[in-house]
Amino acid sequence: MRTLFPLLRVAACLLMSTCFVLSSSAEERVYELRTYTTNEGKLDNLHARFRDNTMRIFERHGIENHVYWTPVGEGEDNTLVYIISHASNDAAKESWNGFREDAEWKKVAAESEKDGKILSKRPDAVYMEPTDFSPQNFESADEPRLFELRTYTTAEGRLPALLKRFRDGELKLFEKQGMTNVAYFTPQGTPNTLIYVVAHKDEDAMKKSWEGFRSDKEWQQLWENSTKDGKIVIKVDRQILRPVDYSPLK
């Protein structure tokens, strides 16, 4: 999916300082979803490293910081989830190579682990491309919100039907119920997956929004029409996330 942004979106972005600058190359901007799991008692050390140094060094190497979260519930004591972006796939490789070889980063990493290794395993990384309907609404609210990171796996060949459903009405129905559409992505190399982020005022608002959405007659009709040719979604994974204090997006 390389031609993701229609000309109207480009024109709109030229008028909005909050829009991302599109890559001047033929490749579209690439987003990266990363999950870090720490050893017991080391999450604060990881936060300190990102807050004081890592984000700044990322930017020096052309990596754009968007949002940093910790889970609500399972993983809240040892997990950091974040989204960054690169100008292209090639730029991502160059940026990561530069970051790993950065003298300041090497010093920061060594000093931060004097009392023991921070990460318990290698980070998980998913490279993603925005869908043509993704609002890319990486703008902070006046107060921190609660976020949902949702991953839908479709039946074989049914991703286009899911994307059409979101494009044709599901996003508007989310908004109708008080949700904020943040971003929608398809991961590279995974043909049957949609990853998206929505935001809520708080946990009560999230619960109320989903209850209203499921009982909405317009949604029920949209779902029925979209599944006439067979089931679309076969698996849903969901994480509830809170932004950390140093996250650009809150």
From TrEMBL:
Pfam families to which the protein is assigned, alphabetical: NIPSNAP
InterPro entries documented for this protein: Dimeric_a/b-barrel, NIPSNAP, NipSnap_domain
Domain NIPSNAP: 31-135, 147-248
The keyword Plastid is assigned to this record: no
Range of residues in the leader sequence: 1-26
Keywords noted in UniProt: Signal
Family that this chain belongs to: Belongs to the NipSnap family.
Annotated protein name in UniProt: NIPSNAP family protein
Organism of origin: Blastopirellula marina
Classification lineage: Bacteria, Pseudomonadati, Planctomycetota, Planctomycetia, Pirellulales
